[in-house]
Protein backbone atom coordinates (compact mmCIF):
# COMPACT_ATOMS: atom_id res chain seq x y z
CA UNK A 1 0.00 0.00 0.00
CA UNK A 2 1.36 3.43 -1.03
CA UNK A 3 0.62 6.16 1.50
CA UNK A 4 -0.04 9.56 -0.05
CA UNK A 5 -0.53 12.64 2.08
CA UNK A 6 -2.85 15.34 0.72
CA UNK A 7 -1.39 18.57 2.12
CA UNK A 8 -3.49 21.42 0.77
CA UNK A 9 -6.32 23.60 2.04
CA UNK A 10 -9.05 21.42 3.59
CA UNK A 11 -11.61 23.30 1.50
CA UNK A 12 -10.35 21.67 -1.72
CA UNK A 13 -10.21 18.10 -0.34
CA UNK A 14 -13.79 17.24 -1.45
CA UNK A 15 -13.08 18.17 -5.08
CA UNK A 16 -9.75 16.28 -5.17
CA UNK A 17 -10.24 13.09 -3.16
CA UNK A 18 -12.44 11.15 -5.61
CA UNK A 19 -10.61 12.13 -8.83
CA UNK A 20 -7.26 11.25 -7.22
CA UNK A 21 -8.49 7.91 -5.85
CA UNK A 22 -10.05 7.05 -9.23
CA UNK A 23 -6.86 8.02 -11.08
CA UNK A 24 -4.64 5.96 -8.75
CA UNK A 25 -6.90 2.94 -9.22
CA UNK A 26 -6.96 3.44 -13.00
CA UNK A 27 -3.14 3.49 -12.97
CA UNK A 28 -3.14 0.21 -11.00
CA UNK A 29 -1.80 1.83 -7.81
CA UNK A 30 -2.97 0.71 -4.39
CA UNK A 31 -3.00 3.98 -2.50
CA UNK A 32 -4.11 5.12 0.92
CA UNK A 33 -4.78 8.80 0.18
CA UNK A 34 -5.33 10.77 3.33
CA UNK A 35 -4.98 14.18 4.94
CA UNK A 36 -3.47 12.67 8.07
CA UNK A 37 -0.64 10.12 7.87
CA UNK A 38 2.25 9.73 10.26
CA UNK A 39 5.13 11.60 8.54
CA UNK A 40 7.45 8.59 8.71
CA UNK A 41 4.89 6.47 6.78
CA UNK A 42 4.38 8.85 3.87
CA UNK A 43 5.54 7.71 0.40
CA UNK A 44 4.48 10.84 -1.47
CA UNK A 45 2.97 14.24 -0.78
CA UNK A 46 0.41 16.00 -2.98
CA UNK A 47 0.50 19.58 -1.85
CA UNK A 48 -0.22 23.23 -2.42
CA UNK A 49 2.75 25.52 -1.80
CA UNK A 50 0.69 27.39 0.81
CA UNK A 51 -0.58 24.15 2.38
CA UNK A 52 -0.22 22.82 5.93
CA UNK A 53 3.15 21.10 5.36
CA UNK A 54 5.93 23.66 5.38
CA UNK A 55 8.56 21.53 7.14
CA UNK A 56 9.29 18.52 4.92
CA UNK A 57 12.07 17.07 7.10
CA UNK A 58 9.90 14.52 8.96
CA UNK A 59 8.78 13.06 5.59
CA UNK A 60 12.16 11.51 4.88
CA UNK A 61 10.66 8.41 3.25
CA UNK A 62 8.71 10.43 0.64
CA UNK A 63 9.89 9.88 -2.93
CA UNK A 64 7.81 12.66 -4.49
CA UNK A 65 6.41 16.05 -3.60
CA UNK A 66 3.85 16.86 -6.27
CA UNK A 67 2.42 20.37 -6.19
CA UNK A 68 -1.06 21.14 -7.44
CA UNK A 69 0.10 24.48 -8.84
CA UNK A 70 2.13 25.36 -11.94
CA UNK A 71 3.91 28.23 -10.17
CA UNK A 72 6.41 26.97 -7.61
CA UNK A 73 8.04 30.17 -6.37
CA UNK A 74 6.36 29.63 -2.98
CA UNK A 75 7.95 26.23 -2.40
CA UNK A 76 11.12 25.98 -4.50
CA UNK A 77 13.23 27.83 -1.93
CA UNK A 78 11.99 25.76 1.03
CA UNK A 79 15.23 24.57 2.61
CA UNK A 80 13.55 21.68 4.42
CA UNK A 81 12.55 20.14 1.10
CA UNK A 82 15.07 17.54 -0.07
CA UNK A 83 12.58 15.28 -1.89
CA UNK A 84 12.06 15.51 -5.68
CA UNK A 85 9.62 18.35 -6.39
CA UNK A 86 7.29 18.20 -9.40
CA UNK A 87 5.23 21.16 -10.60
CA UNK A 88 1.78 20.78 -12.10
CA UNK A 89 1.37 20.48 -15.84
CA UNK A 90 -2.30 19.72 -16.40
CA UNK A 91 -4.15 19.63 -19.72
CA UNK A 92 -7.17 21.34 -18.11
CA UNK A 93 -4.99 24.12 -16.66
CA UNK A 94 -3.37 24.62 -20.05
CA UNK A 95 -6.72 24.77 -21.87
CA UNK A 96 -7.99 27.38 -19.42
CA UNK A 97 -4.89 29.52 -19.85
CA UNK A 98 -5.07 29.37 -23.65
CA UNK A 99 -8.71 30.51 -23.49
CA UNK A 100 -7.81 33.42 -21.17
CA UNK A 101 -4.93 34.53 -23.38
CA UNK A 102 -6.90 34.29 -26.62
CA UNK A 103 -9.89 36.13 -25.11
CA UNK A 104 -7.81 39.04 -23.83
CA UNK A 105 -5.63 39.28 -26.92
CA UNK A 106 -8.75 39.38 -29.13
CA UNK A 107 -10.37 41.99 -26.87
CA UNK A 108 -7.51 44.39 -27.51
CA UNK A 109 -6.83 43.34 -31.09
CA UNK A 110 -10.44 43.90 -32.17
CA UNK A 111 -10.95 47.01 -30.02
CA UNK A 112 -13.94 45.43 -28.31
CA UNK A 113 -13.90 48.09 -25.54
CA UNK A 114 -14.30 50.82 -28.14
CA UNK A 115 -17.24 48.99 -29.70
CA UNK A 116 -18.91 48.52 -26.32
CA UNK A 117 -18.41 52.20 -25.51
CA UNK A 118 -19.93 53.37 -28.78
CA UNK A 119 -23.53 52.24 -28.28
CA UNK A 120 -24.52 55.90 -28.60
CA UNK A 121 -26.45 56.24 -31.87
CA UNK A 122 -23.36 57.23 -33.87
CA UNK A 123 -22.58 54.95 -36.80
CA UNK A 124 -18.78 54.54 -36.83
CA UNK A 125 -17.78 51.73 -39.18
CA UNK A 126 -14.14 51.32 -38.14
CA UNK A 127 -13.05 47.93 -39.44
CA UNK A 128 -10.55 46.17 -37.15
CA UNK A 129 -7.30 44.81 -38.60
CA UNK A 130 -6.78 41.12 -39.23
CA UNK A 131 -4.72 38.99 -36.85
CA UNK A 132 -2.15 38.55 -39.61
CA UNK A 133 -1.38 42.27 -39.24
CA UNK A 134 -0.98 42.16 -35.45
CA UNK A 135 2.26 41.32 -33.65
CA UNK A 136 1.96 39.42 -30.39
CA UNK A 137 4.88 38.37 -28.20
CA UNK A 138 4.68 35.66 -25.56
CA UNK A 139 7.41 35.71 -22.90
CA UNK A 140 7.81 32.14 -21.61
CA UNK A 141 7.35 29.15 -23.89
CA UNK A 142 6.71 26.46 -21.31
CA UNK A 143 3.57 24.37 -20.91
CA UNK A 144 1.31 27.44 -20.87
CA UNK A 145 3.22 29.91 -23.04
CA UNK A 146 3.87 27.45 -25.86
CA UNK A 147 0.24 26.29 -25.96
CA UNK A 148 -0.93 29.92 -26.06
CA UNK A 149 1.58 30.85 -28.77
CA UNK A 150 0.48 27.90 -30.91
CA UNK A 151 -3.18 28.91 -30.75
CA UNK A 152 -2.38 32.58 -31.41
CA UNK A 153 -0.40 31.45 -34.47
CA UNK A 154 -3.36 29.27 -35.53
CA UNK A 155 -5.45 32.48 -35.56
CA UNK A 156 -2.71 33.91 -37.81
CA UNK A 157 -1.28 36.47 -35.38
CA UNK A 158 2.38 37.29 -36.02
CA UNK A 159 3.73 35.55 -32.95
CA UNK A 160 7.14 35.90 -31.36
CA UNK A 161 8.02 33.72 -28.37
CA UNK A 162 10.86 34.08 -25.91
CA UNK A 163 12.33 31.55 -23.51
CA UNK A 164 15.55 30.62 -21.74
CA UNK A 165 16.44 27.76 -24.12
CA UNK A 166 15.81 27.85 -27.86
CA UNK A 167 12.50 26.40 -29.06
CA UNK A 168 11.21 25.39 -32.46
CA UNK A 169 7.46 25.93 -32.69
CA UNK A 170 5.70 25.99 -36.07
CA UNK A 171 4.29 29.44 -36.84
CA UNK A 172 6.12 31.10 -33.95
CA UNK A 173 9.29 33.11 -34.29
CA UNK A 174 11.28 31.78 -31.33
CA UNK A 175 13.95 33.79 -29.54
CA UNK A 176 15.94 32.80 -26.49
CA UNK A 177 18.26 34.27 -23.91
CA UNK A 178 18.56 37.69 -22.27
CA UNK A 179 20.29 39.26 -25.27
CA UNK A 180 17.18 38.78 -27.45
CA UNK A 181 14.64 40.18 -24.96
CA UNK A 182 14.82 43.62 -26.59
CA UNK A 183 13.90 42.15 -29.98
CA UNK A 184 11.03 40.19 -28.46
CA UNK A 185 9.68 43.37 -26.85
CA UNK A 186 10.13 45.53 -29.94
CA UNK A 187 7.67 43.42 -31.87
CA UNK A 188 5.12 43.25 -29.04
CA UNK A 189 2.04 45.25 -29.94
CA UNK A 190 0.44 42.85 -27.49
CA UNK A 191 2.73 41.33 -24.85
CA UNK A 192 1.72 38.19 -22.95
CA UNK A 193 3.69 37.28 -19.82
CA UNK A 194 3.85 33.57 -19.04
CA UNK A 195 7.18 33.39 -17.25
CA UNK A 196 7.67 31.85 -13.83
CA UNK A 197 8.75 34.13 -10.99
CA UNK A 198 12.44 33.51 -10.30
CA UNK A 199 15.43 35.58 -9.25
CA UNK A 200 16.06 36.18 -12.98
CA UNK A 201 12.53 37.20 -13.97
CA UNK A 202 11.63 39.28 -10.91
CA UNK A 203 11.08 42.87 -12.08
CA UNK A 204 11.97 41.95 -15.69
CA UNK A 205 9.28 44.27 -17.02
CA UNK A 206 10.69 47.53 -15.71
CA UNK A 207 11.00 51.00 -17.23
CA UNK A 208 13.84 49.89 -19.53
CA UNK A 209 11.91 46.88 -20.84
CA UNK A 210 8.71 48.91 -21.25
CA UNK A 211 10.75 51.41 -23.24
CA UNK A 212 11.39 48.81 -25.93
CA UNK A 213 7.68 48.17 -26.57
CA UNK A 214 6.01 49.86 -29.53
CA UNK A 215 4.09 52.96 -28.41
CA UNK A 216 0.59 52.08 -27.24
CA UNK A 217 1.36 48.42 -26.56
CA UNK A 218 -0.95 46.25 -24.49
CA UNK A 219 0.31 43.96 -21.72
CA UNK A 220 -1.48 40.84 -20.55
CA UNK A 221 -0.01 39.28 -17.40
CA UNK A 222 -1.39 35.93 -16.27
CA UNK A 223 2.18 34.92 -15.25
CA UNK A 224 3.14 36.45 -11.91
CA UNK A 225 2.75 39.96 -10.51
CA UNK A 226 6.42 40.13 -9.56
CA UNK A 227 7.44 40.08 -13.23
CA UNK A 228 6.32 43.70 -13.48
CA UNK A 229 7.59 46.77 -11.62
CA UNK A 230 4.20 48.30 -10.74
CA UNK A 231 5.38 51.91 -10.54
CA UNK A 232 7.10 51.65 -13.93
CA UNK A 233 3.96 50.20 -15.54
CA UNK A 234 1.80 52.96 -14.04
CA UNK A 235 4.25 55.58 -15.38
CA UNK A 236 4.13 54.00 -18.85
CA UNK A 237 0.31 53.98 -18.74
CA UNK A 238 0.33 57.68 -17.83
CA UNK A 239 2.46 58.64 -20.85
CA UNK A 240 0.52 56.36 -23.20
CA UNK A 241 3.64 54.30 -23.89
CA UNK A 242 1.48 51.40 -22.72
CA UNK A 243 -2.17 51.67 -23.73
CA UNK A 244 -3.65 49.01 -21.52
CA UNK A 245 -2.62 46.32 -19.05
CA UNK A 246 -4.78 43.32 -18.27
CA UNK A 247 -3.39 41.91 -15.05
CA UNK A 248 -4.38 38.63 -13.44
CA UNK A 249 -1.50 38.30 -10.99
CA UNK A 250 -0.08 40.79 -8.50
CA UNK A 251 2.81 41.25 -6.11
CA UNK A 252 0.30 41.13 -3.24
CA UNK A 253 -2.82 38.98 -3.60
CA UNK A 254 -5.62 39.72 -3.11
CA UNK A 255 -4.71 43.06 -4.71
CA UNK A 256 -5.08 45.61 -1.86
CA UNK A 257 -8.26 47.66 -2.32
CA UNK A 258 -6.32 50.94 -2.41
CA UNK A 259 -3.84 49.81 -5.09
CA UNK A 260 -3.87 52.24 -8.06
CA UNK A 261 -4.41 49.35 -10.50
CA UNK A 262 -8.03 49.04 -9.31
CA UNK A 263 -9.05 52.53 -10.41
CA UNK A 264 -6.74 53.12 -13.36
CA UNK A 265 -8.78 53.36 -16.59
CA UNK A 266 -5.92 51.69 -18.47
CA UNK A 267 -5.84 48.61 -16.25
CA UNK A 268 -8.13 45.61 -16.15
CA UNK A 269 -7.81 43.56 -12.98
CA UNK A 270 -8.83 39.91 -13.02
CA UNK A 271 -8.51 38.14 -9.65
CA UNK A 272 -5.98 35.40 -10.44
CA UNK A 273 -8.53 33.41 -12.41
CA UNK A 274 -6.68 33.05 -15.72
CA UNK A 275 -6.63 29.34 -15.14
CA UNK A 276 -6.74 26.73 -12.42
CA UNK A 277 -5.63 23.14 -12.01
CA UNK A 278 -8.61 20.91 -12.79
CA UNK A 279 -8.92 17.79 -10.61
CA UNK A 280 -10.63 15.82 -13.40
CA UNK A 281 -7.61 16.18 -15.72
CA UNK A 282 -4.78 16.74 -13.22
CA UNK A 283 -5.43 13.60 -11.16
CA UNK A 284 -4.09 11.38 -13.95
CA UNK A 285 -0.91 13.48 -14.05
CA UNK A 286 -0.43 12.97 -10.29
CA UNK A 287 -1.06 9.23 -10.64
CA UNK A 288 1.47 8.94 -13.46
CA UNK A 289 4.12 10.75 -11.44
CA UNK A 290 3.40 8.65 -8.36
CA UNK A 291 3.79 5.48 -10.40
CA UNK A 292 7.09 6.76 -11.75
CA UNK A 293 8.38 7.80 -8.33
CA UNK A 294 7.52 4.42 -6.81
CA UNK A 295 9.33 2.53 -9.58
CA UNK A 296 12.36 4.86 -9.83
CA UNK A 297 11.40 6.06 -13.32
CA UNK A 298 12.09 9.69 -14.27
CA UNK A 299 9.57 12.01 -12.64
CA UNK A 300 7.73 14.34 -15.01
CA UNK A 301 7.95 18.14 -14.70
CA UNK A 302 10.67 17.99 -12.10
CA UNK A 303 11.55 21.42 -10.72
CA UNK A 304 15.14 22.54 -11.16
CA UNK A 305 15.98 24.08 -7.79
CA UNK A 306 18.86 26.12 -9.17
CA UNK A 307 16.81 27.69 -11.95
CA UNK A 308 13.85 28.12 -9.60
CA UNK A 309 11.16 26.63 -11.87
P1 LIG B 1 7.04 26.34 -17.45
O1 LIG B 1 6.54 25.19 -18.26
O2 LIG B 1 8.03 26.09 -16.38
O3 LIG B 1 7.60 27.39 -18.50
C1 LIG B 1 8.32 28.51 -18.12
C2 LIG B 1 8.87 29.17 -19.37
O4 LIG B 1 9.55 30.37 -19.00
C3 LIG B 1 9.87 28.27 -20.11
O5 LIG B 1 9.71 28.42 -21.48
C4 LIG B 1 11.21 28.87 -19.66
O6 LIG B 1 12.26 28.70 -20.59
C5 LIG B 1 10.86 30.34 -19.57
N1 LIG B 1 11.80 31.04 -18.69
C6 LIG B 1 12.02 30.84 -17.38
N2 LIG B 1 12.98 31.70 -16.94
C7 LIG B 1 13.36 32.43 -18.02
C8 LIG B 1 14.32 33.47 -18.21
N3 LIG B 1 15.08 33.93 -17.20
N4 LIG B 1 14.44 33.98 -19.45
C9 LIG B 1 13.69 33.52 -20.47
N5 LIG B 1 12.77 32.56 -20.35
C10 LIG B 1 12.60 32.01 -19.12
O7 LIG B 1 5.82 27.10 -16.75
P2 LIG B 1 4.28 27.06 -17.17
O8 LIG B 1 3.65 25.84 -16.70
O9 LIG B 1 4.18 27.44 -18.60
O10 LIG B 1 3.74 28.26 -16.26
C11 LIG B 1 4.24 29.58 -16.40
C12 LIG B 1 3.78 30.43 -15.24
O11 LIG B 1 2.39 30.73 -15.36
C13 LIG B 1 3.85 29.74 -13.87
O12 LIG B 1 5.17 29.76 -13.36
C14 LIG B 1 2.90 30.57 -13.06
O13 LIG B 1 3.62 31.64 -12.49
C15 LIG B 1 1.91 31.11 -14.09
N6 LIG B 1 0.54 30.59 -13.91
C16 LIG B 1 -0.47 31.47 -13.71
C17 LIG B 1 -1.77 31.01 -13.56
C18 LIG B 1 -2.90 31.97 -13.39
O14 LIG B 1 -4.04 31.56 -13.18
N7 LIG B 1 -2.67 33.25 -13.49
C19 LIG B 1 -2.04 29.64 -13.63
C20 LIG B 1 -0.98 28.77 -13.83
C21 LIG B 1 0.31 29.26 -13.97
P3 LIG B 1 12.80 27.21 -20.93
O15 LIG B 1 11.65 26.52 -21.65
O16 LIG B 1 13.94 27.41 -21.81
O17 LIG B 1 13.10 26.56 -19.61
Walk me through the structure.
With 309 residues, this protein is α/β, with parallel strands linked by helices. The protein has two domains: 2-90 and 277-294, 3-Layer(aba) Sandwich (Rossmann fold); 91-269, NAD(P)-binding Rossmann-like Domain (Rossmann fold). It contains nine helices and twelve strands. The protein has helices at residues 13-26, 91-110, 112-117, 143-154, 181-186, 207-212, 230-239, 260-263, 279-294, and strands at 2-7, 31-34, 44-47, 64-67, 85-86, 135-139, 158-163, 172-176, 190-193, 217-221, 242-247, 267-269. It has a seven-stranded parallel β-sheet with strand order 8-7-6-9-10-11-12. A five-stranded parallel β-sheet has the order 2-1-3-4-5, covered by helices on one side. Helix 1 (13-26) packs across helix 9 (279-294) and helix 2 (91-110) crosses helix 4. The longest helix has 20 residues, at 91-110. The chain starts with a strand and ends in a 15-residue tail after the last helix. The mean pLDDT is 97. The structure holds NADP nicotinamide-adenine-dinucleotide phosphate.
Uncertain ranges: none
> Number of domains in the coordinates?
2
* Biggest sheet, spatial arrangement of strands: 8-7-6-9-10-11-12
Q: What percentage of amino acids are in beta strands?
A: 15-25%
CATH architecture of the largest domain: 3-Layer(aba) Sandwich
Search tags:
309 residues, Rossmann fold, 2 domains, 7-stranded parallel β-sheet, 5-stranded parallel β-sheet, 9 helices, 12 strands, binds NADP nicotinamide-adenine-dinucleotide phosphate
